[in-house]
Every structure is written in C-alpha cells, then in structure tokens.
Amino acid sequence: MNPPYLLFDVGGTDIKSALSDEAGNLLGIRRVPTRRGTPDPAASLIDQLHGLGSDLMAQSPLLVPQAVGLLVCGIVDEDAGLGVFSANLGWRDAPLREMASKAFALPVGFGHDVSTAGAAELRFGAGAALGTKVRNAVVLVIGTGIAAALFVDGHAVSAGGYAGELGHAAVPVGFDCPCGAHGCLETIGSAGAIAKRYTQASGRSVDGAREVLEAMETGDPVAARIWNEAVEAIAFSIAQLCSSIAPEAVIIGGGLAQAGEALLEPLRRSLRNKLSYHREPLIVPARLGQDAGLRGAYLKAAEAREVHP
Amino acid sequence: MNPPYLLFDVGGTDIKSALSDEAGNLLGIRRVPTRRGTPDPAASLIDQLHGLGSDLMAQSPLLVPQAVGLLVCGIVDEDAGLGVFSANLGWRDAPLREMASKAFALPVGFGHDVSTAGAAELRFGAGAALGTKVRNAVVLVIGTGIAAALFVDGHAVSAGGYAGELGHAAVPVGFDCPCGAHGCLETIGSAGAIAKRYTQASGRSVDGAREVLEAMETGDPVAARIWNEAVEAIAFSIAQLCSSIAPEAVIIGGGLAQAGEALLEPLRRSLRNKLSYHREPLIVPARLGQDAGLRGAYLKAAEAREVHP
C-alpha cells in the first residue's frame, strides 16, 4: 500500500497527468498540450502543473497526495533537480524540482521522461517479463525522435542527463540533423524520418510511418527501401551498444514499435548480421504503452517520499 | 600498509608478473611469453603462473604474499571467476580464479586485463589527475588491437565480460575483420591497422604506426591519409559513446598513445566536429604505461583479501 501521488509526465508536445490511489492505480489520466512560447517557460510549466494537480485533487477529494512524481523532457540533471535544457520548451538550468516542491508543498521525485519511463518498462513491463536476471538493458523509444534509457548492472545511466541520446548518434547513411551534427540516427531511423523520406522519394504525402509500412506490405519498392534503411540504421546503433555496454535485452517502444514483428524481425536479422562474438541481446517490444511515463513518475514519487518522510 | 601480493597480468602475447611490498611498490617486474598451443591452456597457464610466483617469492623471501591479483585477456566473467573465452589463448569457461586459488593456496582477485588496468588508470593515473568529479569515463587502449574500460557513475561496466569491446564496433569506413564482423574499428584505427594499411598503400614495409607518423611528419601524403582515417574512425567511436554513456573524460592508452598530441589534438578536433549539444569529453593521455595492468592486479588482490580475510 502506497499513499496517493500526483503524477506528471511533461513532453515537448503534451503533459500527461494522473493521481495514483493506494493500490497504485492511475486515476483521472489526462493529456493536455504543454503551454509554450511564454517568457518564463519554467514558471509557466509549474503554474500549468499546479492547475492540473488541483483538478485531479478536486476529482478525488478523499485521496490526499503525499508526494509528486515529475518527469520532464530534454537534458535533465536528476541529482540536482534541474531541467538543464529543453529545445522544445525553452528552459535552461531551471530548478524544476524545487519549484514544484514549493508549488505543491510536497516532496517531489524528479526525473527524465525517457529514462524514467524506461525504468518503469524494465520494472513493470517488458523487463518484468524477461525476469530479474536482465540487469543490462536498453529501452529504445522510436517515435518522432529517438531516445533511450540505458541500464547497467540494474542502474539507470544518467551521466548528468547526457546519456541515452541515441537519436543523435551517427549512422553511416544518416543525413544532416537539425541538432547540428551529421548522420544522426533520427534522420533515417525515426518514425518521423520514415514518413518524411517516403514522401520525398515517392511524391506521395503520408501522415506517418504506419502508411509506409502498409505501402511496403502491398509491394511498394520505395516504401520497402525506406523501411529497410531505417531498420539497418537502428540495427547499426544497437550493434554499437553491443560493443560498449553489451545489453542483454533491447526493449523497443514508441510509435514505431506498434509495427510489431514487421519491425522487430528484420531488426533482429540485421543485428545478427552485424555481430560476431558479441553477446546478442533479446529484442522485444515494450509493454506499458502510453502510460509508461506516469508509471515512472509513480516510482519517482515513491522514492521522494522515502527520502523526505 | 598492505601485505605483499603476487600480481599477474596475462595477455595474449606475454605475462607480466611482480610481487608488491607493503608500501605498494612492484618488485621483480618481469615479462615472459605466454605459453601457447598446449592441449589444456587453462591448466598450462596456472602452471606457468605458479612457476613465476615461486621465482618471485624466492627473490624476496621476507615478503610472504597474502593474496594473488590475476588479470587475463579475452572475455572474462569477473563475478563468476571465469575466463569465458580467449581467441589467443584458447580456453572456454575456465574457472581460472578457483584454479589459481588452489595452486597458490591464497585468495585470488580476478579481473579482465583492460578493464582492471583501466580502473588503475582511473584511480592512480590520468583519472587521479582529473579529480574525483570524473565518474563517467572511458579508458581506450589502442595498440595492436583496441579495447576499452568503461566507467559509469564510478563503477566499471562489465556486462558479463562483453562490455568495452570498442575495437569490434563498426565504423563507416572499416573493413572485414578477422572476428567475423564487418567494419570493426580495429581494422582502421589500431596501431596494427595503421602500419599494415600504410605498407599496403605505399609498398614500403614498416614495423609499426610510429614509422607512419614519422613519414607523415616528413610530408608523406599516403601516411597522412592513413593516419587521418585512423583518427576519424577513433573519433567516430568516441562520438558514439558521447551519445550513449556520455563520458566526461576519455583516457587514451596503449602503444598509439605514445604519439601524444600528434594523435590527441586531431582526435579532439575530429570529435568536436561530430558533436552538437552532446557533452564533449576531455581527451587525455594515460599515465601509468606498461604497469597499469599490474597496478590493477594490485587493486584486485587487495579486494580479494578484504572478501576472504
């Protein structure tokens, strides 16, 4: 039994919020657009979170939250409680943990969205299905962009917020990236890149990677080429990890993972071709879906309460 | 004050051995060829180590060793005490720690040669000069081959012995590798590859990468091309790490590091060109030289004695 917690998962596009009950159920799950373009983005975020929290508490007046779990996107220094940098939301070195703690008058567990959602995936999702022996793992989230949570000997790798930025690691066939580097995995392996590159190559506008997959399955050779290039690029990046931290499992989440075996099967094959004596990781789909971040915020809130009794 | 230890650093080519005194000095440092081609390579190794240990003890009869520090090359499972695999020496899943402990009737601290030498470099060498704030670091050893020791949050990453195999991570311009994979960093960025590729391209036989560097410094364009391709490849692999575990420092050791700033300066420049918002690591030379392994074995012996009082 845990006390109720207020949970927030702040992304560049939207904020998910919920209140957890004593059994750990997520109540009142809601998704609203993240307020953007304000002069003080950190203060504006805290104000928006306060409003969302008040709504949740009004809906469930008998549940009195004892801590807050707050995840944010960008470069995050979990130890210092800082939002170091968010290209989308605009803050720099914002003391978000302290600001949230003051606004709610509660202890706040603070973390990076992808890293903490990955920790929840490892504990409650695909990782739980793999068993406790998997202590070296990667949760690779492939959507509009690509990010990852890395786990070494059972611990999340943070490196001051700079770890797991796999979307901005170079692959041999990558292109110039808006981040300023060249060849980033995101420019070829993300769901966003698949859709964009297919539209450019075929002249046919598509909404997302799903349509490219459907085109491939009807025999469209352009779609097949774009899809395969994405798979090759993702496999290249995973192979790099097999030579550095050597994960036992790679858990694939995000929008592109909805392709299921159409993604995972060629990914395993491509990876196997790239490895020799290396340890080949299991490649499995994520299980928690959209709520992985709120589940991660729950873990953070529980930690914060232990630290601040 | 520590008691004396017997120290062994077993590589594919040779074994270094020494006895440490109470002040931690290494006495009787000796390098002999590793015995090879025997039907039982693990038993043969232990027999050879026993002979070397007896010699050391005969030289310093007043120093009675209280533990053994044993490092071996290949894939090593430090927790289980196993030499999992050595392509050069031929064992598979050999219980080397237990075998050495029986042979010497002493507790044995057991580790991987590169990983443990890296730990010593971090503690006593370049890492000590960088200060205690560096908790995420890579010690990259570039010689005939390339291997690395990775440190995350101050802890060595082992991953069952499969971590740090950077020599066998692909780079865009790499070639087929004897390991069975394609594009391995070792095929272009190692001292061995630099010498071999220069000989192939120029028709002039050289003994090592040092001669290629000397040729470059006299204006040889072939030498400059081969050297620069090696630097680019090494920088590519380091940039991958900047997107995954984001080290604060990369310590370069091994034979190629003797080139000093002729290697490190272009390496820093090439790396900087590949990064955007990533955290740029310090790139510094290793300091311990040939004895890093024995210093690491010393750390392992001291650990073993704490575990088995």
UniProtKB/TrEMBL annotation, chains A, B:
Signal peptide: none annotated. The keyword RNA-binding does not apply. This is Glucokinase. Belongs to the ROK (NagC/XylR) family. Keywords: Transferase. It comes from Paeniglutamicibacter psychrophenolicus. Pfam families: ROK (PF00480). SUPFAM superfamilies: Actin-like ATPase domain (SSF53067). Its EC number is 2.7.1.2. One of its GO terms (molecular function) is glucokinase activity.
